[in-house]
Amino acid sequence: MALRNDAPLIALIAGEASGDILGAGLMQSLQARYPGARFIGVGGSEMAAAGLDSLFPMEKLSVMGITEVLAHLPELLRLRKQLIRFLLDQQPDVVIGIDSPDFTLPIARRLHAQGLKTVHYVSPSVWAWRQGRIKGIKKSIDLMLCLLPFEARFYEEHQVPVAFVGHPLADRVPLETDTAAARSSLGLRQDDTLLAVLPGSRGGEVGQLMPVYLEAMLALHSARPELGFVIPAANAARREQIEAVLGQAPALPVTLVDGESRTVMSAADVILMASGTATLEGLLVGKPMVVGYRVGKMTYAIASRLVKSEFVSLPNLLCREEMVPELIQDDLTPQAVVASVSRWLDNPDQAQALISRFRAVHEQLRGGASEKAAEAVSQLLER
Q1: Residue 236 — left, alpha, or beta (φ > 0 → left; ψ -120 to 50 → alpha)?
Q2: Rounded distance between C-alpha atoms, residue 159 and residue 142, angstroms
Q3: CA distances from residue 129 to 19, 94, 309, 331 in whole angstroms, order as listed
Q4: Among 115, 158, 163, 238, which residue has the fewest nearby CB atoms (within 10 Å)?
Q5: Which residues contact 170 (CB under 8 A, 6 or more apart)?
Q6: Which of 279, 184, 264 is closest to 229 using CA atoms?
Q7: The pLDDT value given to residue 64
Q8: How far from 370 is each of 4, 14, 55, 148, 166, CA to CA, in Å?
Q9: Residues of the chain falling short of pLDDT 70
Q10: What is the pLDDT of residues 50-103, one digit of tens each?
Q11: Which of 62, 52, 152 is nearest to 96 (CA)?
Q12: Residue in 140, 137, 336 with CA at minimum distance from that of residue 219
């Protein structure tokens, strides 16, 4: 495809650190296609290093939690208006919102209505819950860039222009996992059978899951004295919370690690984990896993009416079948955890078949997400 001769003006909007990393990679790939391209919008240090002229610091948008958002809402609305005015004045050739859909998609809708080309990079979970949002998304963008193939199928079904670009994490995680090296780096013995336990990164998750997981760990250790456990703590607060639960079973052979969740998963024979994005890392390091999740009864009653997805874990969604056990809400019991973990430990042939399937998904998600995203954006620019 012959590229345009003039250097395009490209606007990008990122609201958090993960979006800043994605944006920087996309900018570098676009610069290779359009050496004179100029980049404006909002981003962090990674995008600034790649050449973005940021209207204001990205940190002003990095607000987590409902109460925090409410407290900052007047400022967020002011920044959104300022950014819309700025972009309408600058008239960029394309505007790319990166994740942070509650902030970026309303901006895209206003700009799209004024005739600007708009792209959204990283699909919100519209395929899983509140599917009615697809109507608003369709009116807001010219192109959706999806990290996962089942997301792209959902947009195709709803006649929204979409490109599946793959997941940058799949490029960063090696296809071959070096379990021995992971164990060495964590000071773990090479010949032990190890269960990695990941009860989540949020206080509420750890509070809901860790007591159940501890009961299961005690039962597993009683049946298998050779089994060891390793738990990564996401931060100091989670470490303190996990230590308080483990204090009820001081004789249990547990290694508690600060951070290093991917290394911990790489070192394990089987993973017991909370549902969430970490399950994708578990797939990429190629480990059999058991996924558990539990929330408050009221939250579950509301969410179960909104969620339309057959599965909750990314490995099952990506494989389009139940490859790993999902123990959700009342199904999450110590007995069910023990049975599910034991199944993987007792059936190495099943575990190996799972690992082979995960490898195929890993290969599907690899292949230069930034380059594929830049290709899709350039096709939109060349129309």
Answers
A1: alpha
A2: 11
A3: 22, 29, 7, 21
A4: 115
A5: 284, 362, 365, 366, 369
A6: 264
A7: 46
A8: 20, 15, 23, 14, 9
A9: 1-5, 62-70, 127-132, 295-309, 311
A10: 999 999 988 888 654 444 556 778 888 899 999 999 999 999 999 999 988 888
A11: 52
A12: 336
pLDDT tens per residue, range 316-368: 888 888 999 999 878 999 999 999 999 999 999 999 999 999 999 999 999 88
Residues in the chain: 383
Maximum distance among all Cα pairs of the chain, rounded to whole angstroms: 70
Note the pLDDT of residue 43.
Answer: 94
pLDDT confidence of residue 72:
74
